[in-house]
Amino acid sequence: MTAINPVTDLSMDGDIAVITLNSPPVNALSANVREGLFEGFKAATADPAVKAIVLICEGRTFIAGADITEFGGASRGPSLFDVQGMMENAPKPVIAAIHGTALGGGLEVALVAHYRIAVPSARLGLPEVNLGLLPGAGGTQRLPRVAGPEKALEMMTSGRHAPASEALAMGLVDELAEEGKLREAAVAFARRCVTENRPLVKVRDNNTKVEAARGKPEIFEAFRKANARKFRGFLAPEYNIRCIEAAVNLPFDEGLAVERKLFGELVTGSQSAAQRYSFFAERQAQKVPDVPDDTPLIPVKSVGIIGAGTMGGGIAMNFANVGIAVTLIEVQKEALERGLKVIRSNYERTASRGGITAAQVEERMALITGSLDMNALATVDLVIEAVFERMDVKKEIFTKLDAICKPGAILATNTSGLNIDEIASVTKRPEAVIGLHFFSPANVMKLLEIVRADHTSKSVIATSMKLAKQIGKIAALVGVCPGFVGNRILGQRQREAQKLVMEGAMPWDVDRVLYDFGFPMGPFAMSDLAGLDIGWVKERSQGESIRDVLCEMDRRGQKTGAGYYDYDENRNAKPSPVTEKIINDFIVKTGSNPRTVSDEEILERCIYPMINEGVKILEEGKAIRSSDVDVVWQNGYGWPVYRGGPMWYGDQIGAAKVLEKMKEFQAKMGDDFKPAPLLEKLVAEGKKFSDL
Torsion angle of alpha carbons 27, 32, 36, 38, nearest 10°? Predict the structure, then answer.
């Protein structure tokens, strides 16, 4: 065996050269890896004793993509194009041997090999779209030639990883190897290539599948139309589509030029910068400075959930999905049966769409046991309380849990904003109490806001962070304050939205501006979707707010066919003259002078106070870093990922402009806009929100 460089070895198996990469953790295409590949293939190609070359990787994966930490930096060593040219133009068969994942640049490397072999557990894909990019090393031109334009469109705009069996069926790999015996199988495959004198297949020269789509623009038109809602606001999916169009309609080298031009536009643009920032922010959120990696974890093999409503049922599904037994507690038999029925119907709906099998439905349901007796929680490792937001009810429950649950059990509340220190105070083990704030629907939404109380132990925190990852959630650790991070910031936007309506903007004006900014929907459409009567009590209602009047008229949102908006039978919204009259009547009653409110003011009034509140949260130490605030808002509240999050977006605007506008609004409209002292300090010191 010959060491090419610190991450690459070249060895011989008879007349087959084996180039082995070993660059933990994922063999990313760093300068060292590119150099090792280039020099390894150069040496193997020059050696007359070598008849074929196998590329294989050590560790848990094949090349899992580019080293995105190098983006924007000065390039050094051979480029990826240099490596690809050395491989593709080798005068001997080159075989890529794939295990783990071949993603992004890793798959682009594999696509210039003459043949590909993979183990059944391998997955292949071009997920650059998730970083606001497109494959920039020929992937947009080669994948359509292998898999066909339709499959390339689906894979590249979703970033989906295709399992090896599917890759084999589409021709992306040529053969499957037995699990654990990839090297032997790859060498044997290479030897057959030599003895059978197989041709050196270059994907770039295979035009059969792209020519079949030539002259059929309807393929692309239909795909754009079918995915318009999903792609709204994003540049990268459209740029990927254009590259595949180029693969169909242009010679390979011209298509490659289109790819490189569009890649350059994306990689230097703000959207990809935001999406790459978000990628790292999610990983950074896992790190808690004062909770070391070696903190002892509490084994969680069983979970109790109190409350079988929409939230409790959704939480239960998260744990059953990963094989953790759940005991679901309700007070009334009817409520328990209804909750279990909803869980089953959710699973059956997923099965009907092919997401899971019928057998998996039964396996998961078998893990969920209903009970009307809280004593059934005596042996569980974790309890999550998910009842309605009343402090007296929660304190009563935690008093009982303290008496029932075994020593060492974690006692968690799903509260969205109540004081967890107060909840913990009724127990004799406040160190075991933590907030696990799931977002509705809990079986779908990615965010888990983990709320650390004053006495929460480091083991409970570390266990909760790990458990979040196990159940597929993106976790952010926050501190106790009203509304925590997410809802506290949301309150700023909601307040200004309501005030804007009383000043002359209509609900649909506010919603339109925020929708155009990139949110899935605006605050008033969201209220209609959730139901205007959440927290509204008919007997106490005296028409004191627009919402009160709407509810009194039985305009309670989508479920009644009317709320702020009017809805047709398909729940399509349109502005409501009824709501407009109610608003105008309120404006007259309050003596306000309505005015024309610009879209610019709507956006600034809704967004800048959110940024300012984020600064206050950081100032108070209720979030660890500014990127954690962004993780919460992206994954729990629909902040558009291509705008990075409130704090990242604030840096794009500039802290000085945010401060200037907050002072301007404060002078006109009062101390709702009072700048955070830390915001003033940031501007005075010329710092950014990302420095916090």
Answer: 110
pLDDT score for 436: 98
280 has pLDDT over 70: yes
Backbone angles phi, psi at 4, to 5 degrees: -80, -45
* Digit-coded pLDDT (tens) for 563-609: 999 999 999 999 999 999 999 999 988 888 889 999 999 999 999 99
Residues in the chain: 692
Residues 401 and 380: beta-carbon distance below 8 Å: no
d(CA 346, CA 299): 28
Q: What are the φ and ψ backbone dihedral angles of 292, each rounded to 5 degrees?
A: -60, 155
Candidates 93, 26, 11; CA nearest to 53 is: 93
DSSP β-ladder status, 474-479 and 52-57:
unpaired
Single-letter code of the amino acid located at 261: K
Q: Does 68 have pLDDT greater than 80?
A: no
If you search the block for the tokens 């640049």, which residue do you land on? 105
With beta carbons less than 8 A apart as the criterion, state whether 432 and 464 touch: no
Q: Which residues are catalytic?
A: 108, 128
Provide the phi-psi class of 312: left if phi over 0, else alpha when psi is between -120 and 50, else beta. alpha
3-state secondary structure of 511: helix
Tokens representing residue 294 in the block: 């070696």
Phi, psi of 378 (to 5 degrees): -60, -25
Contact 452, 291 (CB under 8 A): no
Q: What are phi and psi of 367, to 5 degrees?
A: -80, -10
Over residues 220-242, the mean pLDDT reads 96
Q: What residues are paired with 413 via a beta bridge? A: 385, 435
Report the alpha-carbon distance of residue 122 to residue 180 in Å, rounded: 11
Residue among 287, 206, 212 nearest 252 (CA):
206
Whether residue 503 contacts residue 497, with contact meaning beta carbons closer than 8 Å, is answered with no
Task: Quote helix, strand, coil % in the chain, to nearest 5.
Answer: 50, 15, 35
The reported pLDDT for the residue numbered 537 is 82
- Establish whether the linkage from the previous residue to 48 is cis, with ω within 30° of 0: no
Query: What's this model's pTM, rounded to 2 decimal places?
Result: 0.90
Confidence label for 302 from pLDDT (cuts 50, 70 and 90)? very high
Cα–Cα dist 655/628, whole Å: 18
Under 8 Å between Cβ of 124 and 167: yes
What's the one-letter identity of residue 547? R
- Model confidence at 315, pLDDT cuts 50, 70, 90, reads very high
- The DSSP letter of residue 295 is P
Q: What percent of the chain has pLDDT over 90?
A: 92
Cα atoms in the Cβ-side hemisphere of radius 13 Å centred on 443: 20
* Nearest partner of 130 among 641, 519, 517, 632, judged by Cα: 641
> For 531, phi and psi rounded to 5 degrees?
110, 120
pLDDT tier, 541 (very low <50, low <70, confident <90, very high otherwise): confident
Report the run of H or E that residue 58 belongs to, with start and end: none
The mean predicted confidence, pLDDT, of the chain is: 95
**What's the distance, Cα to Cα, between the start and end of the chain in Å?**
49
- Cβ contacts of 489 within 8 Å, gap of 6 or more: 483, 610, 613, 614, 617, 629, 633, 646
Which residues 6+ apart lie within 8 Å of 588 measured at CB? none
Distance of alpha carbon 48 from alpha carbon 44, whole angstroms: 8
Residue 354 CA to residue 348 CA, distance in Å, equals 10
- Whether residue 505 contacts residue 602, with contact meaning beta carbons closer than 8 Å, is answered with yes
pLDDT band at 82 (very low <50, low <70, confident <90, very high): very high
